[in-house]
Amino acid sequence: MASSKDLPPWNIPFFPNIFVKNQFCTKPERPPKTTDLTGKVAIITGSNTGLGFEAAKQMLELRLSHLIIAVRSSAKGEAAAAKLRAQFPKATIEVMLVDMSRYDSIQDFVLRVESQLSRLDIVILNAGLMKLTYNAVPDTGHEEIVQVNYLSTVLLAILLLPILKSKSPTGTPGRLTIINAALALTAPLPTPKGHKSLFEALDDPKLFPAYSDKQYNASKVLAHMWAYKLVDYVSADDVVVNLVCPGFVKGTQLSRDVSVFVKPVMALFAAAAARNVSDGASTYLDAALVKGKESHGSFIMSWKISPYNSFLYTPEGREAADKLWQETMEQLEFAGARGIIESMKKQ
Ligand SMILES: NC(=O)c1ccc[n+]([C@@H]2O[C@H](COP(=O)([O-])OP(=O)(O)OC[C@H]3O[C@@H](n4cnc5c(N)ncnc54)[C@H](OP(=O)(O)O)[C@@H]3O)[C@@H](O)[C@H]2O)c1
Predict the structure, then answer these.
(1) Could you tell me if 247 and 182 are in contact, meaning their C-beta atoms sit under 8 angstroms apart?
(2) Hey, which end of the chain has fewer CB within 10 Å, N or C?
(3) Residue 141: what pLDDT?
């Protein structure tokens, strides 16, 4: 199976057609019944609720030995852990705190992972948010959706790459799956106009697409661009990195900030069109456990490696990806991101 980079761009130009195909014309695929995660250690961010919690449950059903619930609230994390411990008493289930809106929290989390875990097989970066109003993160000044869904997620991914490489068993690559969204296919790749950088444009409150999901979609397309470049630096023999869309899923708290007036409309739409959380989370297991090295750097949707946002197949799109890569490395230089990525290239 070809990777997203090697596939031709989408031949379905109209996004609603992709949505209908994704939601109604695909059959959920579960990992083979023989899948056995005994001995393995996995981290799932944002696993106190929604898709992250369900993915944790499904991995424990496959006899995962050690789960790290990586969340920002100790109370919510412990409540989730208690439910899972009651159901899976043989597994080690621990809560580790990480606030994805704070770089110091992410760095501290990685130090704890490095020092406390002797083995790490699978990381699922699921924590994410959708907001319809502008909010700048106090610590970084970046707009919150771009901060959490892209910059912080990418920082955590980069910091965990060498740990996944060294702490996964010899001969078996570590696994890093980042949760994406089909809505990334609708977003134009961001190009700064009159701004010094992409992030300056994305952080500009005057350009914030209020009361729409456009900033969320942009935050997810940034990950397509990042993954497109990452494969030049990271070998699938060390860590297999992929992106996955769970589909439109009902029963999670993603639209918690939507206004009370819009909520009933969304609920009706979700009742008619959305997947249940169990089918949605099965895409995480498919990406992290079933798909192999062929999926490295790819975007997986409907349990299939799929093309990225179509703009990435144009010279302008590739130029934008180069620019984003450089700007991302500059933003994350304080944590030595460039050096870590370069070190992954060496044997
Ligand atoms: N549901 C869908 O239809 C859908 C479709 C496509 C993609 N996705 C993606 O799937 C992922 C999970 O979404 P979901 O639907 O399960 O939503 P959810 O129920 O709202 O879960 C989101 C998780 O992310 C955590 N989170 C948010 N901001 C955080 C921060 N600053 N630091 C640490 N954790 C943070 C939340 O923690 P708290 O509980 O503490 O807030 C929660 O655990 C997201 O990446 C989303 O973009 C969802």
Answers:
(1) yes
(2) C
(3) 96
